[in-house]
Design the sequence.
């Protein structure tokens, strides 16, 4: 026994796989963001640019497109977002009349001749504007761009990829009605409406003007063009796009827009699930682990089952563990950790990921996992009321003949004969359940403090509702750690 412990102490620490290190440090997302910036700005000195990019730490700056048909409220939404995030608004109006860019005069000449400004010219203006330091540091909101598939492709080829695309929509009847009452403040460029959003300040009221090209015929023509281009744009941005009904109070529209742009989309970076389920006995950890393992092809590891398998397989560790299992005494942490480390270091766990339940049971064990460089990237605490735990566990029964499991309330035995021979596991007697719960609750608060980024699961629900919640937490990215 002592020799085994000496060998264990002498064993070198397991080095973390490169993928795990890159995942934990957010390197995949960092490199993706940096590549996007290089493609947008095309610096003469890429190395110096990347160094400055890292110093600025601006990867969380907003990159938003606000799209929609005429009179859907794009300007109102874009200006509000810019005010909220202190970001830079970029629109046709700002590009033509508020900026001095290399091709501004060329674009204005098309406008003055009432000719359509070419897509390539718009794309060049946008790229140049987004290359300016204020857009890099503060982020940007692109209003009304791209207008069509060609513009979208040109922006992408320049490395301009919005993180969020807001697509406003409303019926054509509503939009035509809205456009007739639209008024513009030439001083602030804010948009108002004679019916829905009239300013209270008399000075603002006096200087409002009716925008050009707002006849019903002109609006109908623009709507027709928008509807022709919309499907292609939707297809290009569907993974980062949310459609929001613009025919509702502006406060509701803005609330929905803000909720969307504050979400972080799932990264395309490699992700290997390392999932930890913690919770009281009877909370359904085993069922959820089995469902997750089946759907995502990760390795399902129950600590108790792992110990039994080691004993059954007569491994060296199993021989050391057997006396504790036979006597019903807790297996020492060192042996459990040795067994877990070996199993989680196996190729299938490193390649596919894993879901672990039954360990750690206290903070000391959690710290030992951390020292062994076994670091979960999703931790779930299952919460279940005392009454529900008792109902689930104390009524469990086993058929000693077939090994089939039953429950007095939820899955009663099919015949009186089977019912008569059912037996209860001593672990499921009420006094034993209470003893296990007392141990669990004495350690859970410290464990919750230890795993601060954990998710909390209401385990007193339908199992498939619980599964959907867990699945959503696995898929969505965690907030980036600030260094």
Sequence:
């Amino acid at each position: 026994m002592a020799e085994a412990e000496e060998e264990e102490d002498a064993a070198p620490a397991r080095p973390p796989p490169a993928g795990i290190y890159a995942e934990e440090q957010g390197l995949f997302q960092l490199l993706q963001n940096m590549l996007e910036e290089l493609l947008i700005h095309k610096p003469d000195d890429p190395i110096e640019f990347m160094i400055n990019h890292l110093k600025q730490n601006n990867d969380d700056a907003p990159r938003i497109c606000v799209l929609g048909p005429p009179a859907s409220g794009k300007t109102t939404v874009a200006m509000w977002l810019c005010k909220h995030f202190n970001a830079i608004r970029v629109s046709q109006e700002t590009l033509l009349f508020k900026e001095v860019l290399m091709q501004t005069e060329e674009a204005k000449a098309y406008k003055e001749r009432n000719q359509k400004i070419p897509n390539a010219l718009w794309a060049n203006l946008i790229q140049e504007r987004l290359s300016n330091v204020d857009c890099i540091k503060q982020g940007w909101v692109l209003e009304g761009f791209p207008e069509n598939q060609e513009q979208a492709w040109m922006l992408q080829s320049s490395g301009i990829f919005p993180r969020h695309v807001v697509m406003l929509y409303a019926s054509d009847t509503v939009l035509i009605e809205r456009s007739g009452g639209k008024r513009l403040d030439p001083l602030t460029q804010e948009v108002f409406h004679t019916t829905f959003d009239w300013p209270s300040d008399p000075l603002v009221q006096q200087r409002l003007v009716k925008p050009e090209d707002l006849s019903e015929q002109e609006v109908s023509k623009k709507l027709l063009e928008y509807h022709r281009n919309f499907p292609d744009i939707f297809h290009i941005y569907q993974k980062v796009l949310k459609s929001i009904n613009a025919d509702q109070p502006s406060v509701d529209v803005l609330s929905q827009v803000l909720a969307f742009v504050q979400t972080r989309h799932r990264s395309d970076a490699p992700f290997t699930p390392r999932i930890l389920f913690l919770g009281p006995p009877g909370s359904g950890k085993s069922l959820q682990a089995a469902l997750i393992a089946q759907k995502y092809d990760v390795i399902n590891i129950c600590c108790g089952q792992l110990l039994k398998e080691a004993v059954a397989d007569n491994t060296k560790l199993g021989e050391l563990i057997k006396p504790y299992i036979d006597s019903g005494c807790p297996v020492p942490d060192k042996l459990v950790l040795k067994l877990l480390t070996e199993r989680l270091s196996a190729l299938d766990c490193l390649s596919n990921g894993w879901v672990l339940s039954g360990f750690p049971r206290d903070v000391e064990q959690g710290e030992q996992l951390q020292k062994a460089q076994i670091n979960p990237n999703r931790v779930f605490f299952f919460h279940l009321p005392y009454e529900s735990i008792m109902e689930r566990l104390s009524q469990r029964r086993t058929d000693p003949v077939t090994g089939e499991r039953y429950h007095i309330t939820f899955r009663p035995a099919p015949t009186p004969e089977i019912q008569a021979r059912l037996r209860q596991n001593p672990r499921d007697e009420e006094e034993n359940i209470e003893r296990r719960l007392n141990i669990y609750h004495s350690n859970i608060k410290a464990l919750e403090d230890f795993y601060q980024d954990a998710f909390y699961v209401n385990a007193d629900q339908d199992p498939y509702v619980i599964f959907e919640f867990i699945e959503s937490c696995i898929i969505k990215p965690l907030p980036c750690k600030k260094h």
The CA atoms of residues 2 and 30 lie 47 Å apart. The first helix runs from residue 2 to 10. The chain is about 55% helix and 10% strand.
